[in-house]
């Protein structure tokens, strides 16, 4: 049986993407029998990843549970299905697992056909897109972690302070419209009027500096030195490396003339041998 924690993660995921399931009709398990579909490259996209055995079961049971429990929340419905999955015997799970295996095999065939029809430039573009998506996911996870640890918010600029103060009264019914209106209002302000918001922004920098110092000290106490900024240490390391590089250059320059001078002296000090030419 699938671990309960894994099923809980799947339940949360399915609850967030509830639209993928159809609640119109009851889907029977027979519809998940392995059917080989010919892959068409005209769609322009890769084949979709197949569902696991558990997700196939969820997709089948969702309309049934919804009909039986019309008043409970979507998350509770998925949790209920997860509990049912735990109680199934291996024989009950077998049809879903066999359908999942067949779908994975078809997915490999379709993916190979898709990759074979790509040009090198397209393959490179897809690889770059995957790299960017992976980096974006890492950045999102990092941001969530820092937010959960209470990292102070960055200081606001003078325009940010002005925008927060006048956003509600700004013209426009949409966000882009309000932003455009606020930007035009900001440009029309005099230097003395902008100075008020500039000072507030400077005060916010002081706030950020103090809060970051306290937060980094707390992170150090928790053993999370990896989250602490090390600008000074990086500068010292860079200065040290630069100093070492200069020292090596000086040593090389000092050694090079000595070798040349010694060679010249040796050549001049050696007596010339008489030529052995015949008279």
UniProtKB/TrEMBL annotation:
Regions that span the bilayer: none
Signal sequence range: 1-19
Ranges for domain HMG box: 47-115, 152-216
MF annotations from Gene Ontology: DNA binding
Annotated region (Disordered), positions in chain: 226-279
Basic residues biased stretches: 231-263
Subcellular location: Mitochondrion matrix, Mitochondrion nucleoid
Top-level lineage group: Eukaryota
GO terms classed as biological process: regulation of transcription by RNA polymerase II
UniProt keyword list: Activator, DNA-binding, Mitochondrion, Mitochondrion nucleoid, Nucleus, Phosphoprotein, Repeat, Signal, Transcription, Transcription regulation, Transit peptide
InterPro entries with a match to the protein in the record: HMG_box_dom (IPR009071), HMG_box_dom_sf (IPR036910), HMGB (IPR050342)
DNA-binding region ranges: 47-115, 152-216
Gene3D superfamilies linked: High mobility group box domain
GO CC annotations, alphabetized: mitochondrial nucleoid; nucleus
Function statement: Binds to the mitochondrial light strand promoter and functions in mitochondrial transcription regulation. Component of the mitochondrial transcription initiation complex, composed at least of TFB2M, TFAM and POLRMT that is required for basal transcription of mitochondrial DNA. In this complex, TFAM recruits POLRMT to a specific promoter whereas TFB2M induces structural changes in POLRMT to enable promoter opening and trapping of the DNA non-template strand. Required for accurate and efficient promoter recognition by the mitochondrial RNA polymerase.
Description of how the protein assembles with itself and partners: Monomer; binds DNA as a monomer. Homodimer. Component of the mitochondrial transcription initiation complex, composed at least of TFB2M, TFAM and POLRMT. In this complex TFAM recruits POLRMT to the promoter whereas TFB2M induces structural changes in POLRMT to enable promoter opening and trapping of the DNA non-template strand. Upon metabolic stress, forms a complex composed of FOXO3, SIRT3, TFAM and POLRMT. Interacts with TFB1M and TFB2M. Interacts with CLPX; this enhances DNA-binding.
Protein name per its UniProtKB record: Transcription factor A, mitochondrial
Species of origin: Hemibagrus wyckioides
């Amino acid at each position: 049986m699938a671990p309960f924690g894994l099923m809980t993660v799947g339940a949360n995921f399915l609850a967030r993407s509830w639209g993928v399931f159809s609640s119109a009709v009851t889907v029977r398990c027979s519809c998940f029998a392995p059917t080989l579909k010919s892959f068409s490259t005209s769609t322009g996209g890769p084949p979709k990843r197949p569902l696991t055995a558990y997700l196939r079961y969820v997709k089948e049971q969702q309309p049934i549970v919804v009909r039986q429990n019309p008043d409970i929340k979507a998350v509770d419905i998925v949790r209920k299905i997860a509990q049912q999955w735990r109680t199934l015997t291996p024989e009950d799970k077998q049809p879903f697992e066999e359908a999942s295996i067949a779908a994975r095999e078809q997915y490999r065939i379709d993916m190979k056909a898709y990759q074979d029809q790509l040009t090198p430039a397209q393959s490179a573009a897809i690889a770059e897109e995957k790299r960017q998506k992976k980096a974006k996911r890492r950045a999102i996870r990092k941001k969530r972690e820092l937010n959960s640890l209470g990292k102070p918010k960055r200081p606001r600029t003078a325009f940010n302070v002005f925008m927060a103060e006048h956003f509600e009264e700004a013209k426009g019914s949409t966000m882009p419209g309000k932003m455009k209106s606020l930007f035009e209002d900001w440009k029309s302000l005099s230097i003395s009027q902008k100075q008020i918001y500039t000072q507030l922004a400077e005060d916010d920098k002081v706030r950020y500096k103090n809060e970051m110092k306290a937060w980094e000290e707390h992170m150090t106490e928790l053993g999370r030195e990896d989250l602490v900024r090390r600008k000074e240490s990086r500068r010292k390391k860079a200065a040290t490396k630069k100093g070492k590089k200069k020292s090596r250059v000086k040593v090389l320059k000092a050694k090079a003339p000595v070798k040349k001078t010694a060679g010249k002296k040796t050549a001049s000090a050696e007596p010339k041998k008489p030529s052995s030419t015949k008279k």
